[in-house]
Amino acid sequence: MSEQTSKHTHVLVIEDQHLMRLALIHELQAALPASIVHGAANVTIALDLLESHQFDLVVIDPGMPGYDPKSQDDRLDVVQVILDLSPDAIHIVVTGSDTDEEWEHCQKLGVVGYLAKNNIRPGALVDVLQEVAERGYSVRLSNETTAPPEFYHSGLTPREQEILGWMRQRPSGISRKDIYEQLGERFDIDAASAEKYYKRARAKLLKTGLLPKGL
Amino acid sequence: MSEQTSKHTHVLVIEDQHLMRLALIHELQAALPASIVHGAANVTIALDLLESHQFDLVVIDPGMPGYDPKSQDDRLDVVQVILDLSPDAIHIVVTGSDTDEEWEHCQKLGVVGYLAKNNIRPGALVDVLQEVAERGYSVRLSNETTAPPEFYHSGLTPREQEILGWMRQRPSGISRKDIYEQLGERFDIDAASAEKYYKRARAKLLKTGLLPKGL
DNA sequence: CAAAATAGGGACAGGGTTGTCCCTATTTTT
DNA sequence: AAAAATAGGGACAACCCTGTCCCTATTTTG
């Protein structure tokens, strides 16, 4: 048994794809300011952690090696075992190959969140957690989005990247100034600062000779 | 046609899972200091970009929506189409469900890298690119690793996280001092600095009352 | 026991990012 | 033509992270 002394949220992420696991962990840390997040790359490690720690939230990708990813039974077995070992936690399933039936099965087991990997955008986990808190569950099945192309330039700061990303999605008919204000509100900064970042990003791109069309 | 004026490496990442795409982009930016990376969440966007830009490196996940992920033909079709549109680029396929045959098929089409998602660790892409440069190809099929559990605490800086991660993997028989020296060499910093980071990380964890066993 | 390793700190400079404020041309709208 | 929006800058303080150097107890190892 583990000490649950701290006020931190204890989270466990079970996912075999290293980059995806890290990304999920980052998302969760951003969503839960005071958090301790454990990562497990396979079921064995996960079971060890589940036995020695108590978690408030467990994120599971059932498509793990050692279990046939195409076998519905195997996938659900993984989920079942983990649920048995953490009965008090909130469980969210994340998968690359989602189906409606699997969600229903998971729900019967006690899972409250079911998310398709291609429908998890940066920052989306906050919404999911809130939805779970409010409605008791949250489902986001696979969804072919019409996301605009993205553009990343080494030499831009994260803020500049972010602001630029938003500006590139500016709908026609909306002035840049409006975007600045939206951004200011969203990031809780001055609209003038947002403007500044955009301009600096633009200047950097111009200097290197390549800025995407649409300015 | 596009201007290839700059000295930057032009990269395209085609991957429908948003978090994974971002992670790959970050990895590539770290691996290629002067780079411009474009991201496409689906084949349509990818084709648009391929027609308007010229790329040096294209990373493809063939498991895209709109194409049956279980259909070998569909997957290879995606790869084929992209290769046709960027004949001069280096092509690397990244997939969550890798098979030996698929690699062979891809290779015939002109792909030089074939990586299983669960075998891409942070920093691994540098090695892959170097291997491609040296041997002409690089393959990393699915591999159930015995990775140790990971531990992330909000409040630790990236450096502290990183150093802590390494220290937690310390084999018995190796002194911490040895690890400090290894870390110093690896990150090109003073061993004393590595020691400092570890101690500060430890202090933070103690203060919040939770440090993983193994100190 | 003596030496090495470890725990637990403090001080400090440098660098980059962030965020705010202010400035002047030029272009686009109204 | 007047007003608003945009491009393209500069200056500046605050903050955090990084990296280096130095210090003293305590514990472990040889």
TrEMBL record, chains A, B:
Modified residues (4-aspartylphosphate): 61
InterPro entries in the record: CheY-like_superfamily (IPR011006), EvgA-like (IPR051015), NreC/VraR/RcsB-like_REC (IPR058245), Sig_transdc_resp-reg_receiver (IPR001789)
Keyword Phosphoprotein carried by entry: yes
Pfam annotation, one family: Response_reg
GO BP terms in the entry: phosphorelay signal transduction system
GO molecular function, one term: DNA binding
Coiled-coil region list: none
The Response regulatory domain, residue ranges: 10-132
Keyword Mitochondrion: no
Keywords, alphabetical: DNA-binding, Phosphoprotein
PANTHER family assigned: HTH-TYPE TRANSCRIPTIONAL REGULATOR YHJB-RELATED
UniProt name for this protein: DNA-binding response regulator
Native organism: Phyllobacterium myrsinacearum
UniProt lineage: Bacteria, Pseudomonadati, Pseudomonadota, Alphaproteobacteria, Hyphomicrobiales
